[in-house]
Design goal:
The protein is mainly beta. The longest helix has 13 residues.
């Protein structure tokens, strides 16, 4: 068996990806074997107050998506195989099997600077918000602001998006799990929770974590990002397309424009330069493959000029 070290923890590849339980010394303790979803239970290392971050298979075109693993959705464990998460239209309490059946990658996190009573209190606070309305990013005030004080007389004070709910649950216990703190842009994605010093990975599964990181949400001129945008991706002229994968089994990346095959790259970094002149709405797709015939696709929509 080959063991890779990824982000400081043990990573053991298999044909469909990888999963592992991790302790503080980052040693492999167990593997996750999938069973029918109606019998799915959380790994035995997961405790009340632990966080679940995951990637979802349908978010390639959704405006709130940002690059990086485990950025699509988050939930907090409240016990009895149950998680609380903020989704449209309200904060909900749902069984773990729901999340397990949807994800393509997931990671369990523990707030290591919290004691047991703080983790229990964070879970109880999140559970008390079940039924609260969801905070939409692209409705007034037009940003995914984070706000811990739900008693303020502001229209978003009692609304939550998924990562804000996790952050606020621990902020009320005196622990800020957003590595960005209160710096602009004052919202919290999964990546900022994942990389915060208060947080550690206790269990991870990596299967399909392929994504296009360039071009992405910006205006690109002469192969350089000149301005970030909230949603659209505009490309003027030539662009080097970059695709990343966190699955160590991937050995090939195929690039497509509007489902027309353009190039194959067999060694990282997986890049291909799109130099042909085109105009209008185009779809860039990258399909990663491993040696066992598994394929993992990702795509972005761009507006191409010249």
């Amino acid at each position: 068996m080959i063991v890779f070290l990824l982000m400081g923890v043990c990573f053991v590849p298999n044909l469909q990806g990888s999963s592992e339980k991790i302790n503080e010394s980052s040693s492999l303790l167990q593997s996750d074997r999938r069973v029918p979803c109606d019998n799915i239970t959380v790994p035995d290392c997961v405790e009340v107050g632990d966080l679940l971050l995951l990637d979802l298979p349908w978010v390639e075109f959704i405006y709130y998506r940002i690059p990086g693993p485990y950025n699509d959705h988050g939930a907090i464990y409240v016990g009895n195989n149950t998680f609380v998460d903020a989704v449209v239209p309200v904060v909900k309490s749902r069984d773990y099997s729901h999340f397990y059946s949807l994800q393509k990658n997931y990671v369990f996190l523990r707030v290591k600077t919290a004691n047991e009573s703080q983790r229990q209190a964070a879970a109880a606070w999140a559970a008390s918000k079940v039924g609260s309305p969801y905070q939409h990013f692209f409705r007034p005030p037009w940003f995914g602001l984070k706000m811990a004080n739900t008693n303020l007389s502001l229209p978003i004070a009692h609304k939550f998006y998924c990562m804000e709910l996790l952050w606020a649950a621990y902020y009320h216990q005196g622990i800020d799990i957003d590595q960005n703190g209160w710096s602009f842009p004052w919202w919290v994605p999964g990546d900022d929770i994942l990389n915060d010093d208060d947080v550690e990975i206790i269990y991870r599964n990596v299967a399909n974590s392929t994504e296009i990181t360039k071009p992405f949400k910006g205006i690109y001129v002469a192969n350089t990002k000149r301005m970030s945008t909230l949603e659209k991706t505009i490309v003027l002229g030539e662009i080097t397309i970059e695709a990343e994968t966190y699955n160590e089994n991937v050995t090939r990346m195929d690039f497509f424009i509007d489902d027309v095959f353009m190039a194959a790259v067999t060694l990282p970094p997986f890049q291909w330069t799109w130099s042909e002149q085109a105009s209008g709405r185009r779809m860039i797709k990258a399909i990663a493959s491993d040696g066992q015939g598994n394929h993992y696709a990702t795509s972005v929509i761009v507006w191409k000029i010249f």
